[in-house]
Write a structure and sequence with these properties.
276 residues; 37% helix; alpha/beta; five-stranded parallel beta sheet
Length: 276
């Protein structure tokens, strides 16, 4: 069984748009996250599948009914931080504050313990492993924040591909998004933009290889805005960013539906922590 995860944020909160939309402008943007999460919950229900939802505190604060619905339908609620700030761009004190208020808010709204955290843009790496100590201090049980690939904005390619404890045996459990090992390199196999940009068969082959060749559970992720071809197109966005964000949005719903049928899926806490 593989772990299906959703990073719950709206289209205007992605890190690639940070230089175009300031957080102070977020309340004035037309939000579409409710519509998109409703669509995802419907797909999961149709396949009798549960997932882990890494949810922004900013979203949860404004849409508490959405948080409660995620939990009531049997999914794991986890934290994506409060304000979608990269861990690598925060001081230790600011980071601890962000992850603490997010955890407290999600737990108050859901009535459930929040065990997991995923850093925006996978922004924990070799230079800021101290962030894992902060997560443990704040009461988290695991992180899914270190992506063992080469990328122009993030990545720790020398990191292990599967579950490990970067800070030693007593440290926090890290659960990396899936990669496949080919020709001496780790290649992304766990969703995100790669799932939209590459043919579906590439992701299916990679996940099957992880399950059979590596004998491991995969960890896959996507965002609600990736199933929303009707979202506003922001002006002034560079070609590279525009391609990464908008390409194949119209194909995503069908691909997720196919993915749900081709593999067995579950929550991170059930698969890796034994909290069934």
């Amino acid at each position: 069984m593989n772990a299906l995860t959703v990073d719950v944020e709206d289209y205007f909160q992605v890190s690639a748009f940070a230089n175009h939309i300031a957080p102070d402008d977020w309340p004035r943007m037309p939000c579409r996250v409710e519509r998109n999460v409703d669509l995802i919950l419907g797909l999961l229900a149709a396949h009798r599948t549960h997932a882990t939802f890494f949810t922004l505190g900013w979203i949860a604060e404004r849409y508490p009914a959405l948080v409660r619905r995620i939990v009531s339908e049997g999914h794991e609620l986890a934290s994506h931080g409060y304000a979608h700030q990269r861990a690598s761009q925060q001081t230790a004190d600011a980071f601890l504050h962000d992850i603490t208020i997010s955890k407290q808010l999600l737990e108050q709204l859901s009535g459930q313990p929040v065990l997991g955290y995923r850093a925006p843009s996978f922004s924990i790496g070799q230079a800021n492993l101290w962030a894992l100590d902060s997560l443990q201090q704040a009461g988290y049980h695991y992180s899914s924040s270190i992506y063992p690939i080469h990328h122009d904005h993030y990545g720790m390619p020398a990191a292990p591909r599967f579950a490990w404890r970067p800070r030693g045996a007593r440290g926090l459990l890290e659960l990396p998004v899936s990669t496949v090992r080919l020709l001496g390199r780790n290649l992304p196999a766990g969703g995100g933009g790669y799932f939209r940009l590459l043919p579906y068969a590439a992701s299916r082959w990679a996940l099957r290889r992880i399950n059979s060749h590596d004998g491991q559970a995969g960890i896959f992720y996507f965002h609600p805005w990736e199933l929303d071809p009707g979202q506003p197109v922001l002006p002034g966005i560079g070609l590279k960013t525009r391609m990464r964000h908008y390409l194949n949005l119209h194909r995503m719903e069908a691909r997720i539906n196919r993915l749900l049928g081709d593999f067995r899926w579950g929550r991170i806490d059930h698969i890796f922590l034994g909290h069934a």
